[in-house]
Amino acid sequence: LRLPTENPPYGTIVMLQKPIACNDTAVIKNFIENMGGMKPVTIGTDVNEMGAITSLVQVYANPVNKRFAIVEHFAAQKSCILVQGYNFDKYVYEKDYQGS
Q1: What is the mean pLDDT of the chain?
Q2: Residues near 7 by beta carbon (within 8 Å), at least 6 away in sequence
Q3: C-alpha–C-alpha distance, residues 97 and 94, integer Å
Q4: What beta strand segments (E) does 36-97 contain?
Q5: Which residue has the higher pLDDT, 91 or 73?
Q6: What are the residues whose beta carbons fall under 8 Å from the beta carbon of 45, sequence distance 6 or more?
Q7: CA–CA dist 43, 45 (Å, integer)
Q8: Residue 77: DSSP 8-state
Q9: Percentage with pLDDT > 70 across the chain
Q10: Is the pLDDT of residue 94 over 80?
Q11: Closest CA to 80 of 15, 1, 16, 27
Q12: pLDDT at res. 88
């Protein structure tokens, strides 16, 4: 992770460079599901300015060993593991979506 050399103005969003692991989608899925024992628990889409889907984003988790990963899948059959971690827990916030 490469951080800026100077502090940006407060409240400014900055772009950082972070190395991520990528490969063919089949290779990434095999690693996540077979080696890590994780299964997909959520899915979302990333869209461009025109509303076209550019990628699928999935959270994978293993409820037994609490491992998790966030993976971005691209149409070109490539995928990237954006982050992996431990101590996965779910937060259910249904009441946040109910009317007052």
Answers
A1: 87
A2: none
A3: 6
A4: 39-47, 53-61, 68-74, 78-85
A5: 73
A6: 53, 55, 56, 57
A7: 7
A8: S
A9: 85
A10: no
A11: 27
A12: 87
The residues that bridge with 46 in the sheet, in sequence order, are: 55
Mean pLDDT, range 12-25, rounded to an integer: 91
Amino acid at 34: N
How does pLDDT run across 46-83, given as a tens digit for each residue? 999 999 999 999 999 998 899 999 999 998 999 999 99
Cα separations (Å) of 78 from 19, 37, 40, 56, 61?
16, 20, 17, 11, 20
Q: Hey, what are 14's tokens? A: 């900055």
Do residues 61 and 37 make contact, with C-beta atoms less than 8 angstroms apart? no
Query: Beta-carbon neighbour count of residue 58 at 10 Å?
Result: 19
The single residue listed with the structure tokens 């050399």 is: 5
Chain CA centroid to CA 75, Å: 16
**Greatest Cα-to-Cα distance within the chain, rounded to the nearest angstrom:** 46
